[in-house]
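Quick start: what a row looks like.
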Amino acid sequence: MEPVAAPAHGISRRDLVGVTLAAGAGTRLAPLSGLLPKALCPVGNRALVDLALDRLEQVTPNMAVNAHHFADEVLRHIDQEWAGAVTVSTEPGEALGTAGALARLRPWIDGRATVVVNADSWSPTSLAPLVDGWDGRSIRVMVNGDGGFGPRARIVASTLPWSVTKNLVEQPTGLYEVVWREAFARGELEVITHKGLFIDCGTPLDYLEANLAAATIHGSAILGAGTVIEDGVDISGSVIGAGARINGDVVNSVVWPNQSVARGERLIRSIRAGTSVTVGPL
């Protein structure tokens, strides 16, 4: 297939790769992250890592994921859902951070420019504004909101030219410390403002809000395949996973796959993630 250039985009899809960072332990997301790797927690009934890859796939077919916490589960998931279309880079021992992870992927990146997203954040918006007009030679960050770039900026995605990636070191380091901060100080960091929805699913409350936003966009409750909903129960604003059995009200809440809500129960702004794990109301 011939490479296709995105509109007003100076670099071909063939010369661009996308990396989803999915190695975080998700400590703040406990107890949910004790059941699943953070990147596999579902928003709108789709794993966060898959949603991140969906967005990358809009700008490049060449995609990779890094994994550390529950790496075997992430690897199995990617193999099952993406059938060899996504490279997985596992990090034994200590997690390498955002910069070290890209250094480990350097043989795969192999001279190409890179778009980077985090699997632990949710956004329904396109990455096109980040790559439109990009020639693959500059460093860009897409920042949510009007606050501009800084240590607390909400980074939606970023780009790295090969000239930067090739010099990264495979050790625990972050892109802010070794790339973005210095580029910003030199006036060489291009900041793209992102005005759309963006939620860092770092805590159970943030994770719930992402799901409720997905349900709002959907226009009604989101139901997975094979859900069983008792007549007359209220499931408004909720996301209910495949195979769940709902016999009580579930309002503005999340029920993970194959979980149940008993008759007489009423979940409000809560997350039912396991037989003994319910978080909320939040």
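That is the whole record. Residues 1-9 have pLDDT under 50 and may be disordered. The helical segments are 48-57, 71-82, 97-104, 106-109, 128-131, 162-165, 175-185, 204-218.
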